[in-house]
């Protein structure tokens, strides 16, 4: 069986939606690109963590790994928000253990 495009400029696309309170863009993948279910779960974990805590997650972050303190948080606020402490790598880059959820 041979698959053909409907027109030369049309491709089939798979879309992944993440339903969270804030609207976020969907991830689009051409059908010839594989989708990694574990990456989708990792992204959901990161979205949930960053929605409720003032942190960011680095690329390839996995649940339980250290997270980044948002640059907009002052050092005084960070001391209050992150009782486990944090490590300052650069003025804009601070790392902390993940907050308890």
What does this structure look like?
The structure is a single chain. The chain is of the alpha+beta class and 101 residues long. The chain has a single domain, classed as Antioxidant, Horf6, Chain A, domain 2 (2-Layer Sandwich). The strands form two sheets. A four-stranded antiparallel sheet has the order 3-4-6-5, covered by helices on one side. The protein has a two-stranded antiparallel ribbon with strand order 1-2. Strand 5 and strand 6 form a beta hairpin.
Strand-pairing-aware structural class: alpha+beta
What portion of the residues fall into strands of 2 or more residues? 15-25%
Give the helix proportion (percent range). 10-25%
The strand order across the widest sheet is 3-4-6-5
Taking the sheet with the most strands, its summary is: 4 strands, antiparallel
Show unreliable segments.
none
The CATH topology name reads Antioxidant, Horf6, Chain A, domain 2
Termini separation comes to 50 Å
Task: List SSEs in N-to-C order.
Answer: EEHEEHEE
**Whole-number tally of structural domains:** 1
CATH class designation:
Alpha Beta
Q: How is the topology of this model organized?
A:
Elements: E1 13-16, E2 27-30, H1 37-52, E3 55-56, E4 67-69, H2 75-81, E5 87-90, E6 93-96
Antiparallel strand pairs: 1-2, 3-4, 4-6, 5-6
């Amino acid at each position: 069986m041979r698959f053909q495009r409907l027109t030369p400029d049309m491709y089939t696309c798979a879309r992944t939606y993440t339903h969270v309170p804030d609207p976020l863009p969907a991830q689009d993948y051409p059908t010839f690109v594989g989708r990694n279910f574990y990456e989708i779960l990792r992204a959901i974990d990161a979205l949930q963590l960053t929605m409720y805590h003032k942190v960011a997650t680095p690329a390839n972050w996995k649940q339980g790994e250290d997270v980044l303190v948002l640059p907009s948080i002052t050092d005084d606020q960070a001391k209050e928000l992150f009782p486990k402490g944090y490590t300052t790598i650069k003025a804009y880059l601070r790392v902390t253990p993940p907050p308890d959820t």
